[in-house]
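Protein in question reproduced for absentees:

***
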Amino acid sequence: MPTRAQSFTVAPEDAGKRLDQFLAGQLADVSRTRVQQLIEQERVEVDGKHLRAAHKLAGGETVTVTGDVQPPPLKAKPENIPLDVVYEDDALAIVNKPAGMMVHAGAGHTAEEEDEEDPRTSGTLVNALLYRFKKLSAEGGELRPGIVHRLDKDTSGLIVVAKSDVAHRKLAEQFSQRQVRKTYTALVHGWPKSDTGTVNLPIGRDRVRRNRMSVKSSQGREAVSHYKVRRRLETPYGKFALLDVTIETGRTHQIRVHLASLGHPVVGDTLYGAPAELVPLASAYQRARPANTKATRDRMVSELARRLTEEATGEAKAAKKTKKKTAAPGSPTPVPVSLPRNFLHARALEFTHPKSGKTLSFSSDLPRELDGFLSRLQHLSS
């Protein structure tokens, strides 16, 4: 599509052609449908006039394209997707979001035809909410109805949804004034130096890898996270710590970025430095043998030992078979495992009801795949 005004003179041999037919032949890689949209949006002039797509050209006219098509905004549609609704009333709902589900679609429009489905508007929490509740707050626009706050795609747990505009505004005010208490459970690599701590580092877009956030961005916004160590684990795969994390702000990837900045990335979070696979220490030492010095070998072991944890299905049986074949009774032999998501779960949510003024508190247990993974590490913990 043109980004600047382009003009074309209608040649004598083009006399009698429709306006849209003529333009489709002049604009490279632009469909006739797009040309018709340009004409409908009055971005095409014929000798300074806006004419219909079916207008027959006489020859000698100047046809000018003055701008691009302005695509209609994305609009989420209802989809019958199962939801775990923890609570609902006429003002709001609390939903337990699974990992792997986006809260809402991203901006933009890629479909060639106006009525064509954009795949990014499908399969989200919003699609499921529209099917379940029919009517949601319109404060977030047609793409994000009812959405007051968000969770990352691979983060599971509790999220509050507004059913009315009034409820949405009051809830949003609580979030902006830091009156909502959100508690997360995270499993991280390594052991933090202290049992409690606060990370107060601004977060902004990474200058090089634009899909990441960073504490080193010059455009960072204030971000505050607090953590408390619930359990320390020393396993054949290395050291891990189970944390409770509360946040005062709600920046993109905040917990993941802050914990990674301490040198303790969330298990499974390969975007922020966690390894994709967890390798037993013994295997790591074997792989480290070619190193020339002890320091190099230790660094390799440290990195390899952090490689991460369990497929939710099939891995338990594989581990059992390995135990039967190679392990002495009572001493299972660990095998490399991986976790296909981040070990980060929005466990608790507390806020004031926008209508009644009462304090509401909700909690959510770890999902099965995280609970099973943690149980495995605890079983192997010394």
